[in-house]
Design goal:
alpha/beta, TIM Barrel, binds iron/sulfur cluster, about 20% strand, single chain, nine-stranded mixed β-sheet
Length: about 250
């Protein structure tokens, strides 16, 4: 194995919301998207962190291995696949050591990383930020057409275990147009994955201020439980039935 290192912003030793069981969560620095609602802008900025080799990641995991028996390790960020080579090497080593691996990703990355990781990742948690091209561009500064949706389709075709995550943002991602388009896309997937609905919240806004950044969604209220339920109803009418509900925002 090479001496390749990855820039990790921070590590959560005992995470419970990013995959099954108790997990070590690696927040990899950097992200190609610029989501207006990002609640980890300091991680997405990608200029802070510590360099780790894959072996150091495994060593860190092994320190608390006992606690992860029903869990494992999750790559999150930022966008973990921005450091695709490092993540691929880590996953290879983790699988040799029988670690359950989850990937929390927007799939805004080169398709080669996705394909190469299929054998080693046990659970893909894929965020769709917006369903229509216009809303995606507005919310993330990136198109969803060419890279992201194609990556989701090719991953899904490979029959991996997948969960789609979608944040309900009042006035942005919760209307009939966005939700019916989301339903339409999900239904075209060969192996329809469950959909996790997350509620937008403003708990990360202070981080934008700390970074001297303007928070463009100022004034947008937190999504309530009713907002999430309303969105679920629209999706249900549009043919989606497999939901995971969660009244928090993964960012
Ligand atoms: S919300 Fe996620 S994908 Fe969007 S900028 Fe933040 S880290 Fe990147």
């Amino acid at each position: 194995m090479s001496g390749l290192k990855g820039l990790i912003h921070s590590i959560e030793a005992f995470g419970t919301v990013d995959g099954p069981g108790v997990r070590m969560v690696l927040f990899l620095a950097g992200c190609p998207m610029k989501c207006l609602f990002c609640h980890n802008p300091e991680i997405a900025a990608g200029d802070e962190g510590q360099f780790y080799t894959p072996q150091q990641v495994l060593d860190r995991y092994n320190k608390n291995k006992f606690f992860y028996q029903a869990g494992g390790l999750t790559f999150s960020g930022g966008e973990p696949l921005l450091q695709g080579e490092f993540v691929s090497q880590c996953v290879r080593l983790l699988k040799e050591n029988k670690v359950h691996v989850a990937m929390d990703t927007s799939l805004c990355c080169g398709e080669q990383w996705v394909e190469g990781l299929i054998p080693g990742v046990d659970l893909w948690m894929v965020s769709i930020k917006a369903a229509t091209a216009e809303m995606h561009q507005k919310l993330t500064g990136q198109s969803n057409a060419a890279i992201i949706m194609n990556n989701i389709i090719s991953l899904n075709r490979s029959q991996v275990k997948m969960l789609i995550r979608y944040v309900i943002i009042p006035g942005y991602t919760d209307d009939e147009k966005e939700l019916s388009k989301l339903a339409e896309f999900i239904k075209t997937l060969p192996f329809v994955p469950p959909l996790e609905l997350l509620a937008y919240h403003t708990m990360g806004v202070h981080k934008w201020r700390n970074l001297d950044l303007i928070y463009c969604l100022a004034g947008v209220p937190d999504a309530t439980e009713q907002d999430v339920e309303r969105a679920r109803e629209i999706l249900r009418v549009n043919g989606i039935s497999d939901f995971v509900l969660c009244y928090r925002n993964q960012g």
